[in-house]
Design brief:
The structure is a single chain. This protein is of the alpha/beta class. The chain has 2 domains: 45 residues, no CATH class; 267 residues, Aldolase class I (TIM Barrel, Alpha-Beta Barrel). The chain contains 9 helices and 19 strands. The strands form 5 sheets. Strands 8-9-11-12-13-14-15-16 form an 8-stranded mixed sheet. Strand 14, helix 8 and strand 15 form a beta-alpha-beta unit. The protein starts with a strand and ends in a 21-residue tail after the last strand. The model has no long low-confidence stretch (mean pLDDT 97).
Length: 338
């Protein structure tokens, strides 16, 4: 447990948390919507500081990050909790753990230096802050990120993008890549399924891109909820309006959590989403959760295949210094050693 950053003290020992777009006002003895930041007598504490609930070594493609050191490995860490309550969360057993266990928290003690050394020992190119929303563990993760940068490891977030401007200010100097979930394009969808609204997410995508951080975007496509032609086009146009070089991963939904009775998304729907994304001008659109389909990277100039993938693994990388071997045009991404 550590005193949190980015909060203000209010009247009667309440606090105003400025970590994410919810901007919770938290009464003494209570926690924010994330379930892991608690007001103790007018002081806000980050309860999961240094407590990891998950560690793993993943291909960077699993995040998914297709244009960021392809074929490399990411040392992946997580704490419990989340500032969203997605009805379809596949990691709900850790993201919603505090809410499902009367506020109880779990996690093994970890030190920033130990995490960095383990990432180096296991041959990872980056540390990924993933599985649950990394924003809610900002204080601890910043300590890890500073040490990772000093050790020439890249820092990658897998985020819902619902962080505040203050969090972005603290995060961006240490962040190298991020995949942001753009779960839909309407506030109605966010209110109904996610527990938030869409504008802060779009603001985050634009902000991190403008700051030079490599950004990829994922949309989990759910039948009858965000799969209409209009919604898919509006989503693609929102991304393209920021940059046509941002890769868009349209992923297949499978039943999970409170949507266990909802049907899986047809592959044909994802193929339709991909066509829409390319039609609005996005250079790179990928199918997710569909093994062996829609994973190749094509040169946006001549259409040649420059990276072949199967599952989460790179089978062939034909790029030479980030350029297409067929026509010499640049392919957007982070390809070379930092």
């Amino acid at each position: 447990m550590k005193e949190a950053t980015l909060y203000d003290r209010g009247r009667d020992n309440s606090v105003h948390c400025r970590l994410c777009a919810h901007e919770c006002t938290i009464a003494p003895g209570s926690r924010g919507l994330c379930g892991v930041r608690e007001n103790d007598g007018g002081t806000l504490y980050a309860l999961t500081y240094g407590r990891l609930v998950a560690r793993d070594i993943d291909p960077i493609e699993k995040k998914p990050m297709f244009h960021f050191y392809p074929g490399s490995r990411a040392y992946s860490i997580a704490t419990v909790g989340c500032n969203f309550t997605c009805q379809n969360c596949q990691n709900h057993f850790i993201s919603q753990y505090p809410h499902q266990h009367d506020g109880r928290l779990v996690g093994d003690a970890a030190e920033p230096d130990e995490i960095v050394q383990e990432a180096i020992r296991t041959g990872c190119r980056s540390i990924a802050y993933t599985y649950t929303e990394p924003t809610i563990a900002l204080e601890f993760y910043l300590e890890v990120m500073r040490r990772a940068r000093a050790a020439d490891l890249a820092n990658v977030w897998v985020s819902n993008g619902y962080f505040s401007h203050d969090t972005a200010d603290a995060l961006l100097p240490w962040l190298d890549g991020i995949n942001i979930d753009l779960k839909g394009i309407s506030d109605e969808f966010y209110h109904r399924v996610v527990g938030g609204n869409v504008r802060p997410v779009l603001d985050s995508i634009e902000r991190v891109h403008e700051e030079g951080v490599w950004v990829e975007v994922t949309t989990l496509v759910i039948a009858e909820l965000n799969d209409s032609n209009d919604e898919l086009r509006w989503t693609a146009e929102a991304i393209a309006g920021i940059s046509t070089s941002i890769p868009w991963h349209v992923s297949r939904f499978f039943p999970a959590f409170r949507m266990i009775q909802h049907a899986p998304t047809p592959v044909e729907t994802l193929e339709r989403a991909r066509r829409i994304g390319l039609d609005v001008g996005l250079h790179y659109v990928y199918l997710g959760n569909v093994p062996d389909e829609g994973e190749e990277t094509h040169c946006p100039s001549c259409g040649a295949v420059v990276i072949r993938r199967r599952g989460y693994f790179v089978w062939e990388n034909r790029l030479t210094g980030g350029t297409c071997p067929s026509c010499g045009a640049p392919v957007d991404g982070v390809w070379d050693a930092a």
